[in-house]
Design brief:
By secondary structure, this protein is of the alpha/beta class. It has 16 helices and 15 strands. The strands form three sheets. Strands 7-8-6-5-4-3-2-1-9 form a nine-stranded mixed sheet, sandwiched between helices. Strands 10-11-12 form a three-stranded antiparallel sheet. A three-stranded antiparallel sheet has the order 13-15-14. Helix 2 packs parallel to helix 4 and helix 7 packs parallel to helix 9. The longest helix has 18 residues. The two termini are 26 Å apart. The N terminus is likely disordered. The structure holds S-adenosylmethionine and iron/sulfur cluster.
């Protein structure tokens, strides 16, 4: 079983605190969700769908452009500091589709000259052939789903690529883009500490400036969940999972890529600016099926999300110009809870002054002192942050802090 806090997280589900200022000078992100994959991986519960009959990409892109018009009207005059194409598998998009969306974003908002533009890619040879086109379209960072560095594990994870193919795609990515990250899933079935140490060392040898290392999570309603429930899939838990996590922190720290978030490691300065925007509770638009957005408007922070079904989303956008299913106000208490929850994942931790500004919350000093004594938390002036041991029990730590 996965330890609390070490599991992968879909950042598009994160909400953000209410800010007092207009927010228009703050960084602003645009998330674009492409919900299609070639096959469904047995562990994955992201909003991803297989369409054997093909996808009418031009029709979907026209709908993305329409939904961008809608979000530009909801959040005018922002300064875009990051754009993220996530999925699903955005590397199934034609480069001209990515270019059309980036051009539309630049027409609606002012985009920073050094804006981070990331695209998630699966590391097959076919997808690597599209990298140059993405670069020409304006993508400057790629996040590759390598997942494992041996073919047996890749097969067990239901992946469509071999380890050699993934490393070849990684080499092409490193030649093509300024910044490259890749994902691995660890605490896989049968994985020992020695095996993960060897694999992670190999990964660090190939790493550019960023690595995402996710502990395998059994997500409800996936093929892995059924096998896990039936007892035919056993994954590391308890002391072994803890050891794998702590080893990950140690090896990455030693290699100069410390954890800046529970599962994300980077050379200082190379953190994912887009993901930091979620964890720091900033604003972002979210377009495409099942995307989430947080937008500060005159009356406070609003949480929006679009229809998850690609076809239902497409029909609604074509009928009325947006695929929004939920649009609700967040109370200041909800904003503060979520800021606490998200920022505790970060190495930089929680800004206590900011927390107080959101809903007047003042965390109990004796609880903080007790957590510090137990080695779970550290305080540095106006900031508190979970230690590596604290990140292993993040849910408990948050409960104590919020009590
Ligand atoms: C949006 S997903 C995948 C992007 C891309 N389609 C791919 O598969 O490479 C982002 C990352 O979440 C991680 N992930 C997804 N499901 C997971 C799970 N159940 N446990 C741990 N990590 C998971 C994988 O490492 C994956 O690369
Ligand atoms: S892990 Fe990636 S490729 Fe696999 S189903 Fe999920 S989004 Fe699609």
């Amino acid at each position: 079983m996965a330890m609390p806090g070490t599991e992968k997280q879909d950042p598009s589900t994160i909400s953000a605190p209410r800010a007092k200022a207009s927010g228009q000078r703050e960084p602003f992100g645009v998330y674009v969700h492409w919900p299609f994959c070639l096959a469904k991986c047995p562990y994955c519960d992201f909003n991803s769908h297989v369409r054997h009959g093909g996808v009418d990409q031009d029709r979907f892109v026209a709908a993305y452009l329409a939904e961008l018009d809608h979000f530009a009207a909801l959040a005018p005059a922002r300064r875009v500091s990051s754009i993220f194409f996530g999925g699903g598998t955005p590397s199934l998009m034609e480069a001209r589709s990515v270019a059309a969306i980036l051009d539309a974003i630049a027409r609606h908002w002012s985009v920073d000259a050094d804006a981070e533009v990331t695209l998630e890619a699966n590391p097959t040879s076919v997808e690597a052939e599209r990298f140059a086109g993405y670069r020409a379209a304006g993508v400057n960072r790629v996040s590759l789903g390598v997942q494992a560095l041996d073919d047996k594990s890749l097969k067990a994870l239901g992946r469509m690529h071999s380890a050699d193919e993934a490393l070849a795609a990684l080499a092409i990515a490193k030649r093509t883009f300024d910044r490259v990250s890749f994902d691995l899933i660890y605490a896989r079935e049968g994985q020992t500490v020695d095996a993960w140490r060897a694999e992670l060392r190999q990964a660090l040898g190939h790493a550019a400036d960023h690595l995402s290392l996710y502990q395998l999570t059994i997500e409800p309603d996936t093929a892995f969940a059924a096998r896990h429930a039936a007892g035919s899939l056993r994954i590391p838990g308890g002391a072994l999972a803890r050891e794998l996590f702590l080893l990950t922190q140690e090896l990455c720290g030693d290699a100069g890529l410390p954890a800046y978030e529970i599962s994300n490691h980077a050379r200082p300065g190379s953190e994912s600016r887009h993901n930091l925007l979620y964890w720091r509770g900033r604003d972002y638009a979210g377009i495409g099926p099942g995307a989430h957005a947080r937008i500060l408007r005159g009356d406070g922070k609003r949480a929006l999300s679009t229809l998850k079904s690609p076809e239902a989303w497409l029909a609604q956008v074509e009928a009325r110009g947006d695929g929004i299913e939920v649009d609700e106000a967040l109370s200041s208490g909800e904003c503060a809870d979520e800021y606490l929850l998200m920022a505790l994942r970060l190495g930089e931790g929680v800004d206590l002054k900011r927390l107080a500004a959101i809903d007047g919350r003042d965390l109990d000093q004796s609880t903080i002192a007790s957590l510090e004594r137990r080695g779970l938390l550290r305080q540095d002036g106006d900031r508190i942050a979970a230690t590596p041991a604290g990140r292993l029990v993040l849910d408990r730590l948050i409960l104590e802090l919020a009590a």
